[in-house]
Amino acid sequence: MALITQEEIQELKRLDLKTFIEDVKGFNFKQHGKNYYRCIEHTSLVIKNHNGIYKYYWVNEGQCGDIIEFTKNNITKDNSSRGFRVAVDYLQNGKFSYSDTAIENKREVTEKKKKGEILISYSDNMKRSYAFLSKTRGIIPKVINELIQKELIAEDDRHNLICKNYNNDGILVGGERIGTCSYIKYKGTIDNSDENYGFTLKLGNKVNTLYVFEATIDLFSFYQIMFGKLDNALLLSIGGAGRYKKIGVYLKQFTEINVIKVCTDNDDCGTNCLFDITKTYFNYNVVDDRNLLINNNCKDFNELVLLK
Fold this sequence. Notes:
alpha+beta, elongated, 2 domains
């Protein structure tokens, strides 16, 4: 095994740590000052540029160091005597060369985002997302395969699960990113997403019942529990208990809906959401459809799937 030279180590340390973490972990940062960045998802994680060498400080994890230390602690996770070498090999063998061309391409993407375009850089496979849904969330293959075939889910180049939102014309108008790392939770909205829309799964040709969920994973879980038993229904994830006004968009789109079944979480937020939906859409038959959760003492439908 060839020795690592000091020149090679210094070259790695000059890599843009912020861009590296964004690419590999899917985190996002906000600039505070000229050479200081704070992570949006993990606010105790900050990055500083010291004379051309980036260093990170992650208070909640008790970590600090350069890009090699970050890789060793959070990616390769080898704490043996070989840990440093394993991290260096990972960085040297990976595609982490932030050249002028790469920077220019990133500028082009930024300009497109400013124009309001929905931009998603896809992975060439669904391995990480498939494993996350199957092993971590308990979703069975026939449900995952159907979602893939209907182009409702995908995986981006940072290995986040992408849940797509479409408008009435079948045009992609946004979506949600869900991290697939079991040890780090991450959720984010795709840039320029139209907040009037949520994730939907249509079943049958004549929709007359709307099922409302707080989270997309709960929608997947409910669909699995009720697999083959639902027809002429629209399953909608509103992306949070406070975003119930999205429902109105779909009531205008599917005019034959007369029943709204609320499948929110079995907690105070879920109950408040049920109350808000009942109050706002009083012309419809609003039903509390959380009996399965209440009877099994579960907070949400994914917890119920994992329980079984």
